[in-house]
Amino acid sequence: MIGGLVFLIVSAVLNVCLGASGLSLSDIWRALISGPGTSAASRILWYARLPRILACVLAGAGLAVSGAVIQKVLANSLASPGIIGVNAGAGLAVSACCAFGIYSAWAIAGASFAGAMLATFLVVTVGRRTHASRTTVVLGGVAVTACLNAITETIVTMVPDAALASIDFRVGGFSSVNQGRLIPAGILIIAGILVVCTLTNELDVLSLGDDTARSLGLNVSAVRNGMLTLAALLAGASVSFAGILGFVGLIVPHIARKIIGSDSGKLIPFCALAGAGFVSLCDLLARMLFAPFELSTGIILSFLGGPFFIWLLRRRKEDN
After folding, report:
1. What is d(CA 174, CA 245) in angstroms, rounded to the nearest whole number?
2. How far apart are CA 257 and CA 277, in angstroms?
3. What confidence tens digit (pLDDT) does each residue in 87-100 have?
4. CA angle 57, 162, 48 (to 5 degrees)
5. Which residue from 143, 139, 80, 150 is spatially nearest to 301, judged by alpha carbons?
6. pTM for the full model?
7. Is residue 92 domain-resident?
């Protein structure tokens, strides 16, 4: 846990210090003490770097915890918000809001949550009705993701203004993050993570299997639906301001389990720390690799996540 916290702090400090206009630690300290608007360094810190690093921390923590919860609930290590359609559902809701001219921060956050939750329960329901295996549920999620993305593309094609307004969401990044969208989503993410942390015992019991969980007195259906709702809330709130950031909910929980184990009481807070630090580091790479040109953070995550997912598939095949 201390290592995860140190990783987060180092990633955040580097993200704040490095950039087109570098800031030293002394510059940052003076800007924090003097407040916003008193110098060039303080304006860069308060109006650009701090909102961006806060967005990275919130999105990384929310998506990582969401991925850990989904993998526990579905008992499938290949499941994640990006793979089973959660991110696609949230992105569709955001595109629909832009098409109807709805730009309120709370409305977009709520619509993202609703879209994410709809996609989650659609995948789970299809899996149950077809008695699909755990791997098949993931394949069903891929199909749902493709359908939702097709609907999104149809909307942005028919309404060009929605395409311009939602382009950042479909790519994923923090270049245009603002406090208006960050505050309501941040409240939802922090509240969601805290609630998940209070339900870690139930999450561990649920991961033992339905029959074992029922024998221990757990209301399996209620707990599963509640945990999936929380996972959708975390992913939807993150997507509402960060866009569709793939693979965070897949990579971070896997690495976290290798480091700290599968006990949810330790895994969930560690995923929050590691996810926040991981996204902060990827955002730094996006800004610095091809400076002065800036890539979207979602592109960096795709470069890292694609090979990681292929490695997971090969590993599962070898284990079988």
Report:
1. 10
2. 16
3. 888 888 888 888 88
4. 30
5. 80
6. 0.87
7. yes
